[in-house]
Automatic annotation (TrEMBL):
This is histidine kinase. It is a multi-pass membrane protein. GO terms for molecular function: ATP binding; phosphorelay sensor kinase activity. GO terms for cellular component: plasma membrane. It is found in: Cell membrane. Residues 41-258 form the Histidine kinase domain. It comes from the Bacteria. The chain holds residues 220 to 479 of 479 of the full protein. Residues 1-33 form the HAMP domain. Keywords: ATP-binding, Cell membrane, Kinase, Membrane, Nucleotide-binding, Phosphoprotein, Transferase, Transmembrane, Transmembrane helix, Two-component regulatory system. Its main location: membrane. Its EC number is 2.7.13.3.
Amino acid sequence: KFNQKVEVYGSDEISNLGRAFNLMTTKLEQVDKQRREFVGNVSHELRTPLSSIKILSETLIHQESTPEKIYKEFLKDIDSEVDRLNKIIDNLLYLVDLEKENIHLDYQITYVNYLIQKIISNLKPLADKKNITLNFDEKVKIQVMLDKFKVQQSLINIIGNAIKYTPENGRVDVELYTQQDSFVIKVKDNGIGIPEDELPFIFDRFYRVDKARARKTGGTGLGLSITQQLIALHQGEVKVESTVNKGSTFYIILPLRSAV
Ligand code: ADP
């Protein structure tokens, strides 16, 4: 327990020490609260697929003679819940890794235009399935030192979300441009949007605007959290603007200082 505070009245050295102590206590309380919330969230997120697996397997066990077709269907559902569990655990381990101090970035000369082109061509089939137009507007050509893999992952998360949260026949526009001493990768969709009061939370671990929908689309609620950390490691930032039913725009802003 970190709730031992001292009463401080004066302005002498000892009182100042007391104040510093109280401040530290408050900080520790916050960290402790966050830790407990996180463990609670993880347990909840893992329990949901586990409950589904349990119900599905029990039904199979107790059914006398299940037709093969239904049997296979249940097994398929169990299989995808196991995949989900694996995805959550992989993402969690990755996040924990990212939060370690002295994390190593593998800087390489990266031609950003080419990196985005490659990601877009990989995500194209996903967009095609929903007849979504996926466009890339290259305002500039940029070559910088980046951890290619980490920036690629961030972009896959953001562009993947834009496709995921945009209905059929929509569009996703990716734009690359410079702004002062940074370059910006803007990802604009005309999808479902995010309510204004939820915007401040979307980078929180496990936060999803619509849990049921996100689960159906296979989301873990960890993608944006990971993306934000990956970009922060490069001294960059991720910004978002959104209007419900109109669409969302995400900005990945990275320093140009390491331009080569
Ligand atoms: P998920 O795995 O659920 O997609 P993310 O961390 O990537 O998790 O995103 C968190 C939540 O933010 C999503 O569940 C969704 O509600 C919302 N979100 C993210 N990107 C978009 C977008 N382009 N349009 C609308 N909502 C989005």
